[in-house]
Amino acid sequence: MVLDHCDQAANRFAILDSLRGGGLRDALEAQWRELTGKNAALYFPWVWVADQGKNRLVPACGHIAGVYARTDAQSGVYKAPANEVVEGVLDLETSLTSLEQTESDPQCVINCLRAFPGRGIRVWGARTVSGQPEWQYVNIRRLFLTVARWAEEFMADVVMEPNTTQLQGRIRREVNDYLYKLFCQGALQGASPEEAYYLKCDSRTTSPTDREEGRVIVEMGLAPVVPNEFIVVRLIHGAGGVTMAGPGEPA
Predict the structure, then answer these.
(1) SS3 at position 111
(2) d(CA 235, CA 242)
(3) What DSSP line would sit under 41-93, residue for residue?
(4) N or C end of the chain, less CB within 10 A?
(5) Band (37; pLDDT cuts 50, 70, 90)
């Protein structure tokens, strides 16, 4: 299943489509409630596009991927891909008003495409399918996936180095430099780096047993929404590469 693949790979995010022809309540009952995982988001409805002189109804996922890519390029992965124009779309299979959206989906867990007069067709929502509060929003989850991908690339360079305190010091410096860049870009919130993130990589995170088994564990807390309100994850570097363990997940 796509969701299992994305969760296991830990560096991929799935854009899911609602079923064709159904309403928003149908998507909520038949799809969203059955979905598990944290690396995916569900979008409603399908869209009409021009195709060789004819209009054709297609899933919205390709257009949503374009919105993600454009938002990443213009603002960064930490910007929510919401209230953004969906280009290349003629119309929606199902049009919704604000009242219809909130009545059918009171918690707004499905991301809707909405048509606004004079403003075009826009993505109206940035929620994941996760039930965990830390991972409810697309941009927050994708930010952490981006950090994990960077860590895997960096730590590939130190995979053969002795697991010493010197290695831990090097990892601390490199990870701190990367997180500081994210802070300067506006990805993390706070008036100072101390309010935006913290980092540990020493005997408090990596035990003698971990070192003997070839593991280095980095604990970091990032504040992507509110200063000093950290989402804490652990990056575990071992023979199999880097894995990320979030809140409540075993290392």
Answers:
(1) strand
(2) 6
(3) EEEE--EEEEETTEEEEE-SHHHHHHHHHHHHHHT-TTS-S-S-B-TT--EES
(4) N
(5) confident
- Sign of the torsion formed by the C-alpha atoms of 165, 167, 170 and 174: negative
The SS3 of residue 150 is helix
* Fold of the CATH domain 137-245: Dihydrodipicolinate Reductase; domain 2 (3.30.360)
Q: What are the residue boundaries of the structural domains of the chain, listed by start?
A: 2-131, 137-245
CA–CA dist 68, 138 (Å, integer): 10
Picking from 4, 248, 235, 19, the residue whose alpha carbon sits closest to that of residue 135 is: 248
The model's pLDDT over 119-152, given as tens digits with 9 standing for 90+, comes to 999 999 999 999 899 999 999 999 999 999 999 8
CA atoms within 13 A on the CB side of 58: 15
Q: Token pair for residue 85? A: 């124009």
- What is the rounded distance in angstroms from the CA atom of residue 163 to the CA atom of residue 215? 8
Are 67 and 81 within 8 A, CB to CB?
A: yes
Question: Confidence class of residue 161 from pLDDT cuts 50, 70 and 90?
Answer: confident
pTM of the model: 0.93
CA–CA dist 170, 173 (Å, integer): 5
**What whole-number distance in Å separates Cα of residue 89 and Cα of residue 109?**
23
78 to each of 138, 141, 166, 233, how far by Cα in Å?
A: 9, 9, 32, 17
- Asked if residue 223 lies in contact with residue 196, where contact means CB atoms within 8 angstroms, the answer is yes
